[in-house]
Amino acid sequence: MDRAPGLSVRLKLTFSYAGFLMIAGAVLLGAFAVFLDGYRERAQDAGEIVIAPSGTELLRDFAPAAVGAIVFLLVFGFAGGWILAGRMLAPLTRITDATRTAARGSLSHRIELEGHQDEFRELADAFDGMLGRLEAHVAEQQRFAANVSHELRTPLAITQTLLDVARNDPNRESSELDERLRVVNARAIDLTEALLLLSRTDQRSFARDEVDLSLIAEEATEALLPLAEKHGIAIETSGDITLATGSHALLLQLTTNLLHNAIVHNLPERGTVRIRTAAGPEDAVLVVENTGHKLSPHVVATLTEPFQRGTERIRSDHAGVGLGLAIAKSITQAHGGTLSLSPRAEGGLRVAVRLPATDRQVS
Questions:
Q1: Which EC number applies (predicted)?
Q2: pLDDT of residue 311
């Protein structure tokens, strides 16, 4: 939700402390002045000799000191209020930082707020407990997906072997059913491998090296060039050396998925795919754009969900298993980056991947 900028809670508390202290000081000084004036009048009524200034003299002598005292209280209130508010809100800052860390996909982080029990520590402990349960649930889902993928590999491989044997049998006439079975089985194998890769990237357990995204883009383009030529799609590549830190195999898979998606979901003829890389001051950028039908922002927002292709973009051949963009997003997040999708005004999709730049590139 977009909100208008406003004052921070710390600054609001500072104003509250300073304002309260200044008002309390002003009331105290005013009460003191009234007390002196009342005491002088009561003493005069009693016939006592009181050496005290008149009301005008009292105001003249007392006003500068009162103003100075109020200004001192205001400055002291601001300084003290700022320090006290910072100390009071320090646990809340840690909770906020932990929330942002969890939102980026790191569920292993814990606040572990020290000190005696109070409202902030109750909130921190509850948040740590929620993160623990969420991490355990996600880990269970990843293990389930990995185990299912492993279990499906063997029967699918056996089925593929039997179909190949039947197709190569000279004494048996091949039929349309055989070919359809081979296509369905190959699709199931692709789905299994995609699920296994998705579970592995979510675990973020892979070696990291310095890689050049421009070379990875060229490698992916060369591999998918026959598919692009088959569909009449022109691929344009551009970009300088773009260094990032990560797994070459996973980043190649990411780029291949984005490029395959851009080729398959394109115009029926004379479509274009543009892939470029750029080295920024703090990040390495990979952008893949393609022509195609116009997409609504609502459809684009759901394309990174598993098995979500978008009915406006589906094709009958080489459509994949609906995990290409989901895997690309998972690989990006595993590398500490961000993946953003946006519809092009003239039709098609723009996908931008931003990864942290290497130290050598930043310098």
A1: 2.7.13.3
A2: 44
Question: What is the residue whose two structure tokens read 């590398």?
Answer: 335
pTM: 0.55
Q: Decide if 229 contacts 263 (C-beta within 8 A).
A: no
**For each successive 10 residues of the chain (363 residues), what is the average pLDDT?**
65 77 74 67 58 55 70 78 79 83 76 78 86 81 69 75 75 69 73 68 72 94 92 93 89 91 90 94 93 90 72 47 79 89 93 86 52
State which amino acid sits at residue 150: H
**Residue 55 pLDDT:** 52
Task: Give the type of residue at 29.
Answer: L
Query: Which residue, 358, 336, 326, is CA-closest to 106?
Result: 336
* Structure token pair of residue 94: 């840690």
Give the Cα separation of 193 and 150 in Å (integer).
9
Token pair 């310095």: residue: 210
Amino acid 355: pLDDT: 94
Largest CA distance in the chain: 138
Beta bridge pairs of residue 339:
353
Give 17-72 as a DSSP string.
Answer: HHHHHHHHHHHHHHHHHHHHHHHHHHHHHTT-------HHHHHHHHHHHHHHHHHH
| Confidence (pLDDT) at 120 | 77
For residues 107 and 346, give the distance between their C-alpha atoms in angstroms, rounded to a whole number: 39
Nearest of 307, 323, 104 to residue 198 by alpha carbon: 323
Distance between CA atoms of residues 185 and 187, nearest Å: 5
Tokens 């001192």, located at residue: 72
Query: How far, in Å, CA of 305 to CA of 355, rounded?
Result: 20
Q: Token pair of 294, please?
A: 């116009």
Domains of the chain from N-terminus onward: 9-103 (no CATH), 121-203 (1.10.287.130), 209-362 (3.30.565.10)
